[in-house]
Amino acid sequence: MNSTVILGIFEEGLIYAIMSLGVYITYTILDFPDLSVDGTYPLGMAVTAALIVLGVDPILVIPLTFLAGAAAGCVTGLIHVKLKVRDLLSGIIVSIALYSINLRIAGTSNLPIFSKETIFQNSFLGSLVPAALTPYTTVIILLLITVVCKLLLDLYLRTRSGYLLRAAGSNDTLVTSLGRDKGTVKILGLALANGFAALAGGIMCQKQGFFEVTAGTGTIVIGLANVIIGTQLFRHLGLVKATTAVVFGSIIYRACVAAAIGMGMAPGDLKMITAALFLLILVISNLQKGKVKKHA
Amino acid sequence: MLKLEKICKYYNPGTVNEMCLFEDYDLEVEKGEFVSIVGSNGSGKTSMLNIICGSIPLDSGKLYIDDREITKMPEHKRAAVIGRVYQNPALGTCPDMTILENMSMADTKGKPFNLRRGTDKERIGYYQELLAGLGLGLENKLSVKVGALSGGQRQAMALLMSTMTPIDFLILDEHTAALDPKTADTIMELTDRIVREKQLTTLMVTHNLRYAVEYGNRLIMMHQGENVMDLKAEEKAGLRVEDILQKFNEISIECGN
Question: B154 — alpha (psi -120 to 50), left (phi > 0) or beta?
Fold first, then answer.
């Protein structure tokens, strides 16, 4: 394995880690299987590409993609809470609708931004970073963004609002007893989760230099795989926070995919690999749960 | 004061299984009353609590708290002035969060759940004091997840959490039914102490006739959506279990349980 492959694992792993932090909010904290990330991840890409083409500052684009994703997450939440549609279906409805919306936003199914300045490629970085470090700039910037996202989420989960979000997933009767509307809390959680998913998509767009309308297919599977690998592997090491575990899980998962490709699979097989790996992880985590029960 | 006026509640309306639970049911609970409610299964005790709390909708009738109509107020808004402890000890606490986090949340009730720190460090001493009052040693286990506690410990915490902030009513829904007899006694004594200390208006549904007789200053026996017995203050004061047992047996046999 050469250094380009290893850098690639870390770069993609870190980007998917941001999206997985969102999946961690819905899947682990809220206990809500939210499929809308399949639409909000490319939504982040579409918004980013469109805004960068318009000449908006690439750094300013990052919070804007988060807001776009959060708005879409709110829609999923509103459909589920107000219209009483089942959780899985609400996500599917929104992710399908977003496919068309993403096409509208980008105006085309493939929008390149190679020639534009991005957070990874700009004159400021060019003048600042010494030539020897150039191959590592991208991964360093990504590490920075991911760590900031993780720390902000950690901070949020320790606020009053964050406590309520955690309570909503684990016992929503308590949320009602505390005089709060559990529906509103769910909507807030979905907004945050999809904000992270869109932000990850936006960063990916800035890194790869284009928006691609089908890029979101299977995002939820990757996100769930990352979350489950991370939380299962690091569960026994009490020192690691769940959010940190999710970031590690993303990188490990990416390494597994790279290894599979390294063994001679074609890029077209990627989704198959993703699905097979995810299934493997689910089966292993089920076996582990069984073991724990037998011991207890 | 709590007032239920001409409450009607049907289950499965419009089907062959239609069942009328309440028809023109009235109830007034004065401030400071501690009402024990007994009755056989299906007599409407828990449904009444659910109607008061807004957990199930009404078919007709009106609900008032101090002359303010709350019939249409959603459940979580009513919860602002109501503390409720459920039969299932898991419902009153959050199992995935620590004792300290649970206490902090209960303390935040009535205040905005915003981006301020979830746990106010200056309040920790106060929480420990409250937990010490339970006599279960929980004050030294602040960072333990509530899911790791026993049913009795959780129920004690649920009781503490639901009465931590000022409330007008305490609703106890068979809150000792899932506990072993000794723990149930402990929780019941704790309940009585908290109700007295905070002078809470309380409605307690129980299957334990001894608790119903021993605690509280009013006793209601329900049967098929009606009060078949309603004893207040001095009428209740001299009451013994045997006095209500006969009546209770009559209605139970009638229902076949």
Answer: alpha
